[in-house]
Amino acid sequence: MRIGLYPGTFDPITLGHSDIIRRACSLVDRLVIGVAINRDKGPLFSLEERSAMIEAECADISAQTGCEIVVHPFENLLIHCARDVGASVIIRGLRAVADFEYEYQMVGMNRAMDNSVETVFLMAEAQHQAIASKLVKEIARLDGDVSKFVTPAVNAALQDRLR
């Protein structure tokens, strides 16, 4: 069984994330969504809320693709998380050249720690490339319409949280 790990904070999960998840499912049998516990970022949603949103958003993707999708919170090094879940591949989404520069450094460090785990980069579809959770939250905070960037359920959760 080929296991992939797609890590992120997913605060909140966006249509860009869902696009990468759907496409990653064509590469692996089991996709572990690694939800990073990053206290420095001060997430808008708790770990439990982010995990529940991901599970809800991924249920249809799993059913449509036949890929098992598992949510796995982690707070350790990414390469350690990959080992913990048995992943042979780390999936990373790219939006822009700036993402690649950072990710390139991460791949080098991860390979130095464990060269048995490969990293695969997936570009988000063109209509999703500008979407970033940070920007979605900022637009929502300023009473902007984020319905083009998140599903209705995530939009409702954002509106509820920001009221």
TrEMBL record:
GO terms for biological process: coenzyme A biosynthetic process. ATP binds at residues 9-10, 17, 93-95, 103, 128-134. The keyword Magnesium applies. Pathway: Cofactor biosynthesis; coenzyme A biosynthesis; CoA from (R)-pantothenate: step 4/5. GO terms for cellular component: cytoplasm. It comes from the Bacteria. Substrate binds at residues 9, 41, 78, 92. Its cofactor is Mg(2+). Its main location: cytoplasm. It catalyses: (R)-4'-phosphopantetheine + ATP + H(+) = 3'-dephospho-CoA + diphosphate. The keyword Glycoprotein does not apply. The record marks 17 as: Transition state stabilizer. Belongs to the bacterial CoaD family. This is Phosphopantetheine adenylyltransferase. It comes from Litoreibacter albidus.
